[in-house]
Design goal:
By secondary structure, this protein is mainly alpha-helical. It has 2 domains: 157 residues, Helix Hairpins (Orthogonal Bundle); 59 residues, no CATH class. 77% of the residues lie in helices and 6% in strands. The protein is built from 5 helices and 4 strands, in the order H-H-H-H-E-E-H-E-E. A 4-stranded mixed sheet has the order 2-1-4-3. A hairpin with a 2-residue loop joins strand 1 and strand 2. The radius of gyration is 39 Å and the shape is elongated. The chain binds zinc ion. Zinc ion (ZN) binds next to loops.
Length: 235
């Protein structure tokens, strides 16, 4: 058997193994499983984000509560001062009233902010709860798929290993340099060996210059496509 024939036999077995591996990756159970897994990760991140936001809001509410207590104390002290020593003239009375008004207005602002935050936090908590419920449902489905796929893939993996082994066996007698070249080309072009048909590379459909074609006739029968880099053989 010539090197070209050996190489072609190897390529056929190698491509069969690759095709089988690609088929495994397209397995519907596997695809559905992957989709669910992505969804679960996404939901988990969304829930975490909501949780962090709620924690931040809770902190802010605590700060506001303390500020409100402080304002109320100030207001009480001011009221008490007014009762103990009422203002002696109009200007002082007006100033005291303005100060009290300012405190009341601040108090109102804080209370308003607190209510808004509490409402937003509650809606986030609800969204988070909804996510957790949905998460549990999808997670249960995912676990079932995983179990089914693991059983299924055990068989598929065995079959793939067999195909890889078969391909490996075809390398017997093949020039190592040729095999090395095949593997290098395969990293960017597959299948690495293509046929030459009426001066055209059947891998990329590019026509080869006459000079290159003449070289093929003189050499060992393998040339490289100048466009895609595949090994070309004339059949
Ligand atoms: Zn080509």
């Amino acid at each position: 058997m010539t090197q070209i024939e050996l190489l072609l036999q190897y390529q056929q077995a190698d491509m069969a193994a690759d095709a089988f591996e690609a088929k495994i990756k397209r397995n519907p159970t596997r695809v559905a499983m992957k989709k669910n897994r992505d969804f679960l990760v996404e939901q988990q991140n969304a829930a975490k984000k909501l949780e962090a936001e709620v924690a931040q809001m809770t902190d802010r509410v605590e700060t506001i509560k303390l500020a409100i207590v402080r304002l109320e104390e100030q207001l009480n002290q001011m009221t008490k001062r007014m009762q103990d020593t009422p203002p002696t003239d109009l200007a002082k009375a007006q100033e005291a009233a303005r100060n009290a008004q300012k405190l009341l207005s601040d108090l109102e602002d804080y209370e308003k902010e607190m209510r808004t935050i509490q409402k937003e936090a509650a809606s986030r908590e609800k969204a988070e709860k909804d996510i957790r419920v949905k998460f549990a449902t999808v997670k249960a489905e995912f676990e079932k798929q995983k179990e089914a796929y693991e059983a299924e893939s055990k068989e598929l993996k065995k079959e793939l290993e067999q195909k890889r082994k078969e391909a490996e066996e075809k390398t017997a007698g093949l020039d190592p340099a040729l095999l090395e070249k095949y593997r290098t080309i395969k990293q960017h072009c597959t299948p690495p060996v293509a046929k030459l048909y009426s001066g055209q590379c059947m891998g990329c459909n590019m026509s080869l210059p006459q000079a290159t074609l003449r070289k093929l006739k003189n050499d060992s029968g393998i040339i490289e496509c100048e466009n895609c880099g595949r090994m070309l053989i004339q059949m």
